[in-house]
Amino acid sequence: MSQLSWGSRLRSAIADRGRLCVGIDPHPSLLRAWGLPETAGGVETFAEICVEAFVGDVALVKPQVAFFEAYGSAGYAVLERTISVVRAAGTLVIADAKRGDIGSTMAAYSQAWLGEDTPLASDAVTVSPYLGFGALEPAVELATEHGRGLFVLARTSNPEGGRLQGARLLGGQLDAADLSGVSAGESVSVAQSIVDAAVAQNRDGLDTVGLVVGATRGHGLDLSEFSGPILAPGLGAQGATVADLAEIFRDSRELLLPNTSRDVLRHGPSVSALREAAERVRDDVENGLA
Ligand SMILES: O=C(O)c1cc(=O)[nH]c(=O)n1[C@@H]1O[C@H](COP(=O)(O)O)[C@@H](O)[C@H]1O
């Protein structure tokens, strides 16, 4: 391995600039509110303003790939430039691409988002385990090799996720590779099986595999064995507060990374107003979780 582990890189970034992850989500409604055209050019100006406001002030930013993808290759070109400028300035980038596939296709997605020098290479990427946790193996391998991270959807912030992620399954009956640590016959939720698989994967101590657990409601998960990073979206626009974070994640705070997007972005397009909003939330989070 050529460099520090993802866990070490995150710890050092958090120590320097706090644990808040600010989203770069160029929603059409935000483009309009900022007086920008709904074009790739508008997205580019939006992203440039975000970069100026957030880089150096927060530890992590998370571009939402969908809002760039909406403009096709021109949007992707903006995303490539945004990722590379932010990373060059030493701020960590989580690409919110929610990728998940099988075999060589998953390997190709992994190269795209976690490769050494690929155009979209980021520090971490969000992935979906719902084609089987084991199908994420190419991404785990590449991330480990390059000191990068994955954030695996476990219990998402949206209300629709509950039926699937909360469904009970019998340990060992679906895919033994997904359920290490769960004894046969023991009933766990689908989301808990993802947590357990992540615990098993992180036994190497590198914390490559993080989880996505929404801050919008009690997650009902046993996170006591999980010491890796947790991306917690839902702060602000989806209704979660810092007090909710403190309550919901009371036992798993070391690498907790709360995410907020619209609640900060609504303060644009003024760079200083955006920066102040991000700093306010960053400091509230630090104080609330102290
Ligand atoms: O993976 C994510 O980041 C994510 C997972 C989840 O469970 N819920 C969730 O809202 N997100 C993302 O986090 C961001 C939240 O944005 P705001 O609701 O504007 O703060 C969006 O980019 C969502 O796609």
TrEMBL record:
Residues at the catalytic site: K98 (proton donor)
Pathway involvement of the protein, from the record: Pyrimidine metabolism; UMP biosynthesis via de novo pathway; UMP from orotate: step 2/2
A family per Pfam: OMPdecase
Domain called Orotidine 5'-phosphate decarboxylase: residue spans: 19-277
CDD domains, per the entry: OMP_decarboxylase_like
SMART domains, per the entry: OMPdecase (SM00934)
Family stated for the protein in its record: Belongs to the OMP decarboxylase family. Type 2 subfamily.
Protein name in the entry: Orotidine 5'-phosphate decarboxylase
